[in-house]
Design goal:
The protein is of the alpha/beta class and about 160 residues long. It has six helices and six strands; from the N terminus they run αβαβαβαβαββα. It has one domain: 3-Layer(aba) Sandwich (Rossmann fold), CATH 3.40.50. α4 links the parallel β3 and β4. The longest helix has 20 residues. It starts with a helix and ends with a helix. About 40% of the residues are buried. The mean pLDDT is about 95. The structure holds flavin mononucleotide (FMN). Flavin mononucleotide (FMN) binds next to α2 and β4. Flavin mononucleotide binds next to α2 and β4.
């Protein structure tokens, strides 16, 4: 895939999983941020429902997960397991960002997503957003800002 073909696609894909609802609330806030750019289309999918076709549609990616046992949720890992080899011939090289809900850490989920993402290859373009503990209004604003930042980068073709 050429860089120019990729930059013409003003599409963002949010792939996330949530067990208790916090990551889902974060994903909803990220989506609101993305939607502040009307010219950018955003698809928000549960990890179980996302696949190769969605990756090929996207011009940028946002991955959301709780931290479970020091890593990403099994459902987000399953998304990577299902799409890694099918995506390989396309050399998708998309910009991406991570958001994580955790009780007291989150770094293991970030580290493992980053390691897998390097293989696709994907390019991380924003600091990972880790929300520890309760989801306060400030943290939801940070989620919206993450989405808005990604949408702005996609819209302007700066990634
Ligand atoms: C099975 C399990 C394992 C967990 N492991 C961790 C962990 O390793 N580190 C951490 O900070 N929180 C851990 N947590 C807490 C969750 O990350 C936290 O409650 C998060 O907000 C859940 O997000 P959700 O509501 O989107 O499912 C764990 C929770 C569960 C259920």
């Amino acid at each position: 895939m050429t860089d120019s073909a990729q930059k013409q696609r003003k599409n963002l894909l949010i792939v996330s999983h949530s067990q208790g609802g916090k990551t889902q609330s974060m994903a909803a806030a990220v989506l609101r941020g993305c939607q502040q750019h009307p010219s950018v289309s955003t698809r928000a999918l549960a990890a179980a429902d996302a696949g190769l076709e969605d990756l090929l549609w996207a011009g940028g990616l946002l991955f959301g997960t709780p931290e479970n046992f020091g890593t990403m949720s099994g459902m987000l890992k399953d998304f990577f397991d299902r799409t890694y080899y099918p995506a390989e011939p396309y050399k998708i090289n998309l910009p991406y960002a991570i958001f994580v809900s955790s009780s007291n850490d989150g770094s293991g989920a970030v580290r493992d997503i980053q390691r897998i993402a390097r293989g696709y290859p994907l390019r991380e373009v924003s600091e990972p957003l880790i929300c520890k503990g309760e989801l306060t209004a400030d943290r939801l604003v940070a989620c919206e800002e993450l989405g808005l930042g990604m949408a702005t980068g996609i819209e302007m073709g700066i990634f």
